[in-house]
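If your schedule permits, I should be very grateful for your opinion on a structural question. I would ask you to consider whether the tokens describe a fold that such a sequence might reasonably adopt. Thank you for your consideration; the sequence and its tokens are set out here.
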Amino acid sequence: MSRDVTVPRYEHIAREISRRIRDGELRSGDALTATGLAAEHGVARGTARHALETVVAEEGTLSRVGARWVVHECIQPQRLDSMMSFAQWARATGHVPSGRMIRSARGRATTHEASGLGVPLRSPVFRVERLRALDDRPVLVERTTYPPRLAGTLESLPPDTPSVMAELEARLGIRVAHAELRIGAVGADPVDAELLDVARRSPLVRVRRTTRGDDGVAFEHSEDRCLPDAVEFSLVESAR
């Protein structure tokens, strides 16, 4: 195959890697190395690494793990300056969302929950734990705490309800007007590891979220743990 000599060598190799991923020649879980790629294309390892990092930056279909670059499904960005539910975001990016109720229970607000919901310590709350999936692949564990006024509605929802947020809006007219997020990283504990089918202590993205309605009152406070190769967050800022 002829090569356009006006295109840098690393860029030509990056395009070839992207084509192989797109055409299914390289599948999720396959790994590439700079040494192997350099030998295959007759270039220096630095050129091969540049090509691999170009795919990481521009396509989001490779992640570096030690000396290897591993193929995975394209990471879908979720805008931090938009207020979309998991199900809305999934459909907007061409995926099929699903959810499964793991457990739900009434309880008393912990210090963390009371602070998030703006309620007194040990006041009544309703907790819901759900496993969320994209295209039937489990990617997210949601642990959400709600005020007691929503407990009856939440208890009436089917276990496989795709979007609790959509149901709250449809049934009670609750609309998301404001959301506060704090994003960090944690290692998977035994429960999360089993639910998400990963090794214990595997890195997970942790998102703590408080969501408020039009009245400014918090109606949910959650701590979500997500596979890092399933989603990334983007924030767009502009000068005023």
Observations:
- The chain has a mean pLDDT of 85.
- The CA atoms of residues 206 and 234 lie 15 Å apart.
